[in-house]
Amino acid sequence: xxxxxxxxxxxxxxxxxxxxxxxxxxxxxxxxxxxxxxxxxxxxxxxxxxxxxxxxxxxxxxxxxxxxxxxxxxxxxxxxxxxxxxxxxxxxxxxxxxxxxxxxxxxxxxxxxxxxxxxxxxxxxxxxxxxxxxxxxxxxxxxxxxxxxxxxxxxxxxxxxxxxxxxxxxxxxxxxxxxxxxxxxxxxxxxxxxxxxxxxxxxxxxxxxxxxxxxxxxxxxxxxxxxxxxxxxxxxxxxxxxxxxxxxxxxxxxxxxxxxxxxxxxxxxxxxxxxxxxxxxxxxxxxxxxxxxxxxxxxxxxxxxxxxxxxxxxxxxxxxx
Amino acid sequence: xxxxxxxxxxxxxxxxxxxxxxxxxxxxxxxxxxxxxxxxxxxxxxxxxxxxxxxxxxxxxxxxxxxxxxxxxxxxxxxxxxxxxxxxxxxxxxxxxxxxxxxxxxxxxxxxxxxxxxxxxxxxxxxxxxxxxxxxxxxxxxxxxxxxxxxxxxxxxxxxxxxxxxxxxxxxxxxxxxxxxxxxxxxxxxxxxxxxxxxxxxxxxxxxxxxxxxxxxxxxxxxxxxxxxxxxxxxxxxxxx
Lengths: 321, 241
Hints:
The complex is a heterodimer. Chain A is 34% helix and 28% strand. Chain A is built from 11 helices and 14 strands. In chain A, the strands form 3 sheets. In chain A, strands 6-7-8-3-9-10 form a 6-stranded mixed β-sheet, with helices on both faces. A 4-stranded antiparallel β-sheet of chain A has the order 2-1-4-5. Chain A has a 4-stranded antiparallel β-sheet with strand order 12-13-11-14. Chain A is globular. Chain B is globular. Chain B has helices at residues 2-19, 22-27, 30-41, 47-76, 79-85, 90-120, 127-148, 155-172, 184-190, 194-207, 212-238. Chain B has 11 helices and no strands. Classes of the chains: A alpha/beta, B mainly alpha.
């Protein structure tokens, strides 16, 4: 396979602040690549440099073999960009926005209508072609922004926080669309702070923290890299004290999650006996017990050395995905 | 010529989104009409001299204001990023924006020129030369709108920068007070104001001939607009950090 994107020792400083620190990675053609990290980690800066919207301070970046700093216009012709906030013209209709995007990217006039129709259908906006953007919901505007970025059939699509602020249904539909793009051979580069989104969508994930890439691998390999630790979720018929649960042999850390307790344990089987003994001693029943594999969130926290509290900006359970 | 085609698409988009709105269209018209009533009807100035100044003024206020606002609006709604992410150079974007004003300037100018000439009985010496002067003035002032909004982040800020240029020009470019009546140092100062060349060119054209003054004024306007477009494109390029 060949690289759709190549990033080589990329550095970016804003007024003395180091936003990107020697970032390097490659993205293979036809894959979905996720750049995962908390807010302010450097995700948007990376995407802005790759799409020619911002210049790097050092290093190099290329898309489809074209240097984004030196061959900017030609590189832009081969990519589509969906920024974090939907930037379509509110005063224009859905169809007018698509046609304007086609004009900007030099799509032949005879293909404007057909391509617009095809994308409106793909993204579920076919009945809103004549609606002004002002009349569209947030999710619809997001899908229209994606449609505008696809009108010239780019080889690489950049999505910056694609589902941020969307309702669950719109976010799911959008993720399905991303999967469809990969099937069509489009390379997708997305940034997200929703860990589960990266887990579901990406073939490869780079974790970025404080401007540095701290891990780069497939989601499964990253999760497998969290050696030793396992997660046990347990619920009781009555309340349990976290300090008691932390005292059970084999429990490394205990948190309350809604009506259940999440225990990070050195070995799942080591704690079962302790939990049963605890329940008996306190005359409560165990109403649920699940052993979970480490999630991408666990991998992120382990790799960055953050605690769940420190990494609050990285959204996980009960959120959008 | 692909870049010019894309610049024209940007221009047409700007006209649809920002220009064709009643408040924008009337913005530049009210003041010239009031000034004509004050100076022309009352006999304070020769109507023929006044009309060419008012036409230049209406182009300046109309195109420069709208384009300055359009650029800031594009920044605020992040649609400028859409243009910057597209395969077009900053020069194409600036040209597109300046061309939007160039298409609309003649319409705004006609809305003042035709009624005032009919009312005053003044004749338009050379319609073609008048039209060319209006086109070049519209392009220049529209590009000036792009330039003044380069550093602005919100609309009042853009209007403030625009006012720094518009108001000195409105009263010092020979619109109401003949340049000859000004002290020599002020006459020299007016040479850096593009409105001076626009007013002079229109007066010559209204007089009927492609005089050396007309040709020199048009050349000055062309040079000025080229410099403004280049500076705007450079600033847009630098905005990439």
